[in-house]
Amino acid sequence: MKPFCFAKDEIIESKLATSHPLDIGLIRGYAIFDFFRTVGPNPLFLEDYLLRFTNSAKSAHLPLAYSKEDLEQIIHKLIAKNELENGGVRMILTGGISDNFFTPASGDLFLFCEPLSLPSEEKYSKGVKLLPVEYVRPIPKIKTTNYTLPCFLSVDWPSQGAEDVIYHHQGLVSESSRSNIFMVNDGIISTPATHILEGITRKKVMELAANVIVRDIRLDEILVADEVFMTSTTKRIMPITTIGNQVIGTGKPGDQTVSLMAAFENMEKSLLFSSL
Ligand SMILES: Cc1ncc(COP(=O)(O)O)c(C=O)c1O
User: Fold this and answer.
1) At what angle do helices 68-82 and 46-59 cross, to 10 degrees?
2) Looking at the whole model, is its pTM more than 0.90?
3) Among the three residues 114, 129, 163, which one is the final residue of a domain in this structure?
C-alpha cells in the first residue's frame, strides 16, 4: 500500500506533498511540529499531543485552521488509510511564506504516518551514554523544528559510543536533544524545571511516580546521582549509565528506573485494552 499524508486540506499520496521553498520553515528554520506513537492503530495519549501542538502553534504566532477535534478526525482517517500499526504520526505546521521573508506568516499543515522501531533491548538493559554539551534550546517550551545543533553533532556520536547529548548551561541541566531527563538520588526522583520542552512522556512518568520533585538540577549533582534516565515518545524510558567520562551509579540501570520502565509499559497495555 502506498503511504498517504494529509497536506493542504486533503489526504493524498505522501510523495505528492509539496511545500514552497521560500516558506520560512525552510529559509529561517521556523516551523512547529509534534509526534506521537500508535499502539496497534490506536494513538497513545492523543489529547495531550493535540493540546501541545495547538498550544505550540498559538505561542509561535502561527494560525492553525483546524481545531483539536478536526485534527483528531483527520488523524483517525489517515491511520486507517495507511493501515498504520505500532507507528508514529508527525504533524507539521510550517512558518508560511512571509512578505519580508522573516515574520511568521500562515503556514501549511502536514500530517504523515511513519513506521517506528523502539531502541534495541540491549540499550534498555545496559543503558546508554550521553555527552554533556553547553547549550540551551531557544524558546524551549514550543516544539519547534529547530534541531540544528544536535543534527550537526550527531555525526560524531557513534564514534564516541554516545546515544545523544545532555544540555547544560551555567551549571544547570535542562534536557537531552529529544528527551527529558530524570535523576534518582537517595530514592528521590527529580527532573529539571526550566529550559525544557514539557514532554508528554515526562508528564506520564510524573503521574506514575507521583512524588517527582521539579527543580533546578546541577550538572555536578547529576554526575554523582544513583540513577539517571531520559524519557521521550520514541524511547519511552531509557536508562543513562554514562555521562561523558562519568559512570552513573553502579553503571547499570537502577531499580527505580527499571520499575518505572515496567510501569510505563503496563500503562500502555492497559490503555490498549481499554480501547478495544
Ligand atoms: C527537545 C525535546 N525535549 C523533550 C522531548 C520529549 O518529549 P515527549 O516525551 O513528548 O516525546 C522531545 C521530544 O521530541 C524534545 O524534542
Assistant:
1) 120
2) yes
3) 114
What lines the ligand 1 site, CB under 6 Å?
A: 137, 175, 178-180, 197, 199-202, 231-233
pLDDT tens sequence across 141-172: 999 999 999 999 999 999 999 999 999 999 99
Ligand 1 nearest atom to the CA of residue 202, by list position: 9
Are 101 and 153 within one domain? no
Does residue 107 share a domain with residue 130?
no
Atom index in ligand 1 nearest the CA of residue 143 equals 16
Indicate if the pLDDT at residue 1 is higher than 70. no
Structural contact between residues 33 and 89, judged by C-beta atoms closer than 8 angstroms: no
Residue of the CA atom closest to atom 5 of ligand 1:
179
Beta bridge partners of 55: none
| CA-based nearest residue to 85, from 54, 61, 116, 64 | 116
The total domain count for the chain is 2
d(CA 25, CA 211): 39
